[in-house]
Amino acid sequence: MTKYLLRRVAAFSTIIVLVSMGSFFLIHLLPGNVAVQIAGIGATPEYTAWLYKHLGLDQPIYVQYYHWLIPVLHGDLGTSPISRVPVVSTIGNALPIDVGLSVMSQILALGVAIPLAMRSARKPNSIFDRVVTSSSFTLLAVPSFVAIVLLDLVFVTWLHLDLLGPGNFNPVVDSPWMSLLQWRNILAMLLGSVTLALGSVVVYYRVMRGVMIGTMQEEFVTVARSKGISRRRILWRHVFRSSTIPLLGVISISIGGLVAGGFVVESLLGLPGLGLQLIIAVTTKDYVLVQGITLVISVIVVACNFFLDFLYAFIDPRIARE
Amino acid sequence: MSNETTNDAVLALDAKPEKKEAMGIFFWFCLAWIGLNVLVAVFANVLPVADPVNIDFNHYSVLSPPNWSHWFGTDGNSRDIFSRVVWGARSSLYVSISANLIGFVIGGSAGMYSAYRRGKIDLLLSSVSLVFIAFPALIAVIAVLSFWQPGSEIKVIIVLGLTSIPIVYRVIRAATLSAANQDYILAAKVQGATDRRILLRELLPNVAPTGLSFLMLGIASIIGVQGTLAFLGIQQGDAPNWGEMINESRSSLDQSPWLAIFPSIALVLLILSLNFVGDRFRARFDVTEVKI
Fold first, then answer.
1. Hey, where are the domains in chain B?
2. How near does any CA of chain B get to the CA of A274, in Å?
């Protein structure tokens, strides 16, 4: 186990280093002059040249990376050349929204997927199972940007539930985490978290159903049944419990989907989270902010995956031995 | 692509090879739908549909609901939605098929080669691919395209194609590994067949079915990703695109919901058909686990 953990930590550190390089070099190695893009169309050549020097873009790329990396290691992601706001504070204000959206969506997804999967697994190939399984296949084909527009159309435009609509989120100044505790803001995030949940529900339902049907055929279930234990108790105590382990493995897969869906729902609902900030940074050519957000999101995703790996190996030590 | 892995992992659950049974009517319906989309995409410019981009000032009708002359209605610029949906198939299929070709040519051949050769090259390529898979691809795609402006179709193809390489590599490598351990490969080696011959004549035909089913799923997932990019305004251009149409529909959802509904249906049906056909192919041709 220790050896396994050490190997994972080594892999994790390597990936983090590569991710930091990726976030930095992706933008700097691209054709075109960042200074020209920031200066805009009407800028004088003198101003552009000054900006180029001022931003340190005339130095060799590895020197620039060094000048970026050292403060990053101290928790300073630089200051945006466009808005003059420190990147760390922009990210600090945006992050709670993403955390809120993800947590809400995962609660919804697990709350819907687990009962459906148990019902389906109890009688595979029943009408209920067939309907839910084929609907989940259909849902898999609905990208989150389509889902959010259709939800918006139905609930806001047609049913006039205006509180669910775009632009209702009011961040609490100075304490971004507090804004998650207000009813108004929770409602404003509801359609977004439903959209994110749709993607996860499909994954969780299909995994749980598959695993539970497999577990039902295990010998210990037959033994339990022959002892006269009720179906319900077998399902909960024997089958459900052992089927939750593979679920952990899939949650890490769905984190990628959460990130992708996050951009879409935040930009449509006007939720000032990291996704929306990245889109704004992209349109204003704010490369320092783009770098910062890319780095933070990537590190979070990679860290979540590794944490789930650890948890997985901790619960099921056979994995570490492989 | 994160989406690709999700779809793939989820669809894999259904891939229990059963005894050979009929593909079912829904399979043929999906295949026909894909065929129709391909035909319409190829012949969009010769089909008798209205001009999807330029405004027809002779029959000026802004935001008219679906009617006999405009089956899917018109948008805020008086452009025919039916024609734009038809042209959108071209954009989606062109981008996703081209991007997948990049991924399959580079990732697929690298995967086959390292699974056949094993050793250091396999170790190196496999570790590199794992690092890239850990990186959330959509972020990289958005970051690159935002500073590589304007985000034309060809740039989207290049970026999405390159990001799909690691996943294609892993799938093809796994498929090749199971084929490379079979006795007929050993027999070919004993007979003195060259590596080139073994790779192309013995391994490729056995990896192709898995590759084909994964290609279907890959095309489906890139259609979704490209739609997302267009929806976020990162892919731009004159060519009509479903994602962009859905994005534009947002400003007038209350008066003209058909602007969102028709491109959404087209997008979802195409992705669904590709997923279904790919999944069925896999179930039919997957000889790796149970049948041997």
1. 24-44+73-287
2. 11
